[in-house]
Amino acid sequence: MKRFGTRISARAGLSVTAATILMLGLSAGPATAEPAPPTSGLSRSFEIQNLTQNAAFFAGLNGGDSLSGGPGVGSVLQPGQSASFSASSYVFTDGDVYPVYKAWPDNDPNVPHTGEPPYRYDFHFHQSPLGATSYLACAASVECTTIDDRIGQLLDSPGTNLTFGPGDGQKQAQTLLSLCADTRISSCGFSPTSHEVTFSENHQVYTAINNATTSPVTSSINVNYSQTESSNIAIAGKVSAKLGSIINAEVSGSIGRTWSQTVGYSQQVNTTIPPQRSVTFLAKERVDRVHGDFTIKIGNTTWNLPGIYLDTPIANTAVITPQEGPLLTPAPGSSAPNFGSSSF
């Protein structure tokens, strides 16, 4: 970890020359503003990563030069996210920018607060003339670090542990999807604890069939549908490729096949529809259910997500049941048969 560097600038030579003129009793003429030093046209970038449990926000620059690129003041950096900055180098002088991030412990910087946030992270990005050398440092008095002189990281205190249990399914899903999106920042793992074969929840697999006549109608319907992997938290179809490969490897070790699968089902179903009623079809399938816990390590913080299960559908196991109900408006473009008038 580097401490803040001392700024050494050739711009100081201008003030020395002016002082010498005054000492000689000469007239320096009217005071003029110091011209801006010429830039080299080169720009170097650096990155700030939020490895804490709190959402942080960019509080601006604490002195120094201006940025040539980066987020606006007040931009929020959620846990597991990163922000890119850039700064131009000068031809004859050093360049220095001092970005500052701050955070509130309630994890929502958009909630009105009073006073100063308790968490503050000061960084210093330095470039020598023409960008020949550069480095990023953070203040030694706060929980932060830098990597390869180009990446700054906001950190929690060492040994921070957080747990979202089965009753916090939404937080479990949000944490898993957000923190495991960038594998440069986090380490994510799934540890299976048990395996069972069970049925999925009932779900509708076919549009409604209406009987608007005054007599019962018997029909044979070919029900075709497909089912993909699922979970007790809302992550199916949303996980990154890297996280998906981690899950698939662990699930495959338990059931001999991956979690990410699409299975097709087809079944002929005979049903009698009473007059002035409709029928929909509900299905459930056998699934391989793997129970386990996710662990995410990011910076000094470990996130524990226990009690999650992952379901993989099993082929040729569908149980399809007709469900009677009132007349329904056919879905647009539906090819399902409807008997009698379609104006209900």
Description:
It is a single chain. The chain has 344 residues and is mostly beta strands. The chain has helices at residues 12-23, 169-179, 241-255; strands at 39-51, 56-64, 76-77, 82-90, 95-103, 119-127, 134-138, 144-147, 151-155, 160-163, 187-199, 203-211, 217-228, 230-231, 262-273, 277-284, 286-298, 301-313, 319-325. A five-stranded antiparallel β-sheet has the order 3-2-5-6-7, with no helix packed on it. Strands 10, 11, 14, 17 and 18 form a five-stranded mixed β-sheet that branches. A hairpin with a 6-residue loop joins β6 (119-127) and β7 (134-138).
List the helices and strands and how they pair.
Elements: H1 12-23, E1 39-51, E2 56-64, E3 76-77, E4 82-90, E5 95-103, E6 119-127, E7 134-138, E8 144-147, E9 151-155, E10 160-163, H2 169-179, E11 187-199, E12 203-211, E13 217-228, E14 230-231, H3 241-255, E15 262-273, E16 277-284, E17 286-298, E18 301-313, E19 319-325
Parallel strand pairs: 1-9, 10-18
Antiparallel strand pairs: 1-4, 2-3, 2-5, 5-6, 6-7, 8-9, 11-17, 12-16, 13-15, 14-18, 16-19, 17-18
